[in-house]
Amino acid sequence: MHFANNCLKIAIFETNMTNKTIVVSGGTGLIGQRLCKTLLDKGYEVRILSRQLNPSMDKRIRSFAWDVSKNVVDERCFEGAVAVIHLAGEAIVDKAWTPARKKAIIDSRTDSVRLIYTALNSYNTSVKTVISAAAIGFYSDRGDELLSENSPAGEGFLAESCIAWEQAIDEGEALGLRIVTFRTGIVLDVAGGALPPMALPVKFGFGANLGSGKQWISWIHWEDVVNMYLFAVEHSNLQGTYNMAAPEPITNSTFTQALAKQFKRPLWLPQVPAILLKAVLGERSAAILGSTRVAVSKIQDAGFKFNFPSISSALKNLYA
After folding, report:
1. Helix, strand or coil, per DSSP, at residue 47
2. Structure confidence by residue, pLDDT tens digits, 193-203
3. How far is CA 209 from CA 93, 197, 205, in A?
4. Of 6, 243, 18, 237, which Cα lies nearest the Cα of 147?
5. Alpha carbon distance 82, 87 (integer Å)
6. What structural domains does the chain harbor?
């Protein structure tokens, strides 16, 4: 009987090890698509939650419908899955921050993760892990201060939205889930996001510092973002909140100079005045003029290795 019990334990262990089904929300986004491809290449089965029933993605990916505004999700997507990677949420700076827009930004993050938790709680699933995106906007504008995961939250809308976001994410702990939250910096990707509009004027010889140029940028190459999510999936001891940024944050001025060096272009224009950016972008200018310098020793101590720790190595790869 003792031998039979041991055999049963081994069988259960092997079943868990071979179950490689991951559910991804926000899987049709830029990072979502790159992450899904990497998971597939690593032998995982990938399912996505999407507002489109048949998005034009890899045919190996199964798509399940959800509508956060209607509080509806196809719970079959969680059947047999071991983890959920939650990336869904409205873009931050693409539209003016009207009261309605601010509410939409927060609701898209808090309501979506709560919908996932409601489904997991009501549906008998094998999901044990939820890995969620968050943002370094949690810290807000902090000057030269080096910020760890234990640093307190900042002030302003970016911080307020991130606080609400993380509070919703943490509700999964009550369900006995392993929760991993990544406070993400500026993701560098030539296919979209912040990099193309920042690089374009430099590429054509019209680059300039934004504001004083002294504000810190905590950036990260998209490949390290994807690898960090994979790292969290495959390391069950990882739990809690981690800064997701490269180990070498840089100032806006250094970033502009690095772009100029990459494109072999001069920098001759004066800086873009902060007052002008505030006039054009309003409250959203905080996302550009704010200074956020984060430390990543916590994820490094957990064993994660960056492929692109420096801005020069990242840009060289991105524009190869």
Report:
1. strand
2. 889 988 998 98
3. 19, 13, 13
4. 243
5. 17
6. 2-185+220-245 (3.40.50.720)
